[in-house]
Amino acid sequence: MVKNENKERFTYAKRNLWSGILFGIGLAAFIDETVFHQLLRWHHFYDKATTDIGLISDGFFHAFSWFATIGSLFMFADLRRRNGLWIMRWWAGVLIGAGGFQLYDGIIQHKLMRLHQIRYVENVFIYDLIWNLIALVMILFGMILAVRTRNRQRYGKDVSHEHS
Question: Could you report the per-residue pLDDT of 61-109, keeping only the tens digit for each?
Fold first, then answer.
């Protein structure tokens, strides 16, 4: 019985983290697309073509963010139903996912692939620096929470949502 219970705790710990990571990716992508693409109009997902192509690419990007968010919420609901939700571990995943998405966007999409820049200004360095530092801070805090919750699990502390 104890062996099966430990296996379930490990499974739920991973599911909580992955649900949070997916939610964090979806949330960061949604905020990026809404604020920087639509409201501020600083860039589109793909800026190497016409405005129409940029808007179409934004539509695909927006759909991706919603698929990630909705998928994560199905996982979240299943964890609650099974009494396996571990909210602090889930938040660790949210921070890791959001920070990871933002760092990927800032380094891979902005600099390596050059799909777009954060903002088209003469000195984009300060924008890039702030963007990537915020991403690193989110990842750092997410990792700290993930390690703390993993240690709680290792020492047999309660992990359900009712006692988080």
Answer: 899 999 999 999 999 999 999 999 999 999 999 999 999 999 999 999 9
Give alpha helix (H) positions in the chain: 2-31, 51-81, 87-104, 125-154
For residue 94, which of 18, 41, 37, 159 has the smallest C-alpha distance?
Answer: 18
Q: Which own/partner pairs from 152-155 qualify as long-range (CB within 8 Å, at least 24 positions apart)? A: 153/9, 153/10, 153/13
Task: Judge residue 121's burial from the number of C-beta atoms within 10 Å of its C-beta, 0-12 exposed, 13-18 middle, 19 or more buried.
Answer: exposed
Q: Using the CB atoms, write b or e for 27-49: b if 16+ within 10 Å.
A: bbbbebbeebbeeeebbbbbbee
Q: Under a CB-based contact definition with an 8 Å cutoff, are residues 46 and 109 in contact?
A: no
Rg (CA), the chain: 18
Give this prediction's pTM: 0.86
